[in-house]
Amino acid sequence: MSKVSEQVQNQIRVSDKVVASARAHGAAVAEILAARSQEVQGPLTKATKASYFAIFEALADGLSRAAAELGKAEEDLAAERADDIPVRASRDAAAAALAMLLGLLRRTIEDHMGAAALATYGLSTESPRVPAKLLQYTKTVARLLGEQPAVVVSPLGSTFDTAVALQSVNKQSGQLEAAVGDDHREARELETALAARDRAAAAWSDAYQGTASTLEGLYRLAGYRDLAEKVRPTQRKLRGEDEGAELEGTEPAPKEG
Fold it and tell me: Which residue intervals make up region (Disordered) (predicted)?
């Protein structure tokens, strides 16, 4: 499983505690709220224990689902980021190999044809370091090698053939082009995963704030201030900076009077 950020882990823990509180205390609080509704609206009130309890269950289910979707989206994003590492390494290795080949070609042309010939084949300037720019630079070199064919024998008997050089350049350039294409594809996939995570985070934020605020209000209406304080949403919880107070073992403590 890919690593989930500490921020999202805290947000999920906050959600779990709010959900656990709703499930643990929903029935008891629903009974109190229903009794109060009977006092206010009479025995025919539609605000029954079952209807209040259904609200607690719906709130818990909704927040639980939003948290699960956030966790899944964060895992997918982490996995996508991990996938980028070998692809980028492959791209950089292909770029380094091509740059080395161009350096060798530059020295070979200068040895066989003189420094002035470097401009003829687009090699009068240093090769770019950025892979995409290096690829464009190499395409120019390859085009010029094809347009200006030459076979030159040095005084020591070594031969330089532009046709042979062109084959080597095209082969290495093709490897970099494929690697750059893979890198661009991974970048698009990362953008997609990031957008999905951001949508899930926004949905979780709304679900958490709405659920926690609603529970806080219901607990207060029932007289359970301690429970209300524990589920009360805060900016630190929302940002994943605080996972919230422990709710286990908390029992309703109604106010006096």
Answer: 232-257
pTM across the whole model? 0.77
Q: Which residues of 42-69 are buried (b: 16+ CB within 10 A; e: fewer)?
A: eeeeebebeebbebbeebbebbbebbeb
pLDDT in tens, the chain (257 residues): 457 789 999 999 999 999 999 999 999 999 999 999 999 999 999 999 999 999 999 999 999 999 999 999 999 999 999 989 999 999 999 999 999 999 999 999 999 999 999 999 999 999 999 999 999 999 999 999 999 999 999 888 889 999 999 999 999 999 999 999 999 999 999 999 999 999 999 999 999 999 999 999 999 999 999 999 999 999 999 888 876 666 544 455 444 43
Sketch the domain layout of the chain as residue ranges. 6-238
Check residue 223 and give left, alpha or beta (phi > 0: left; psi -120 to 50: alpha): left
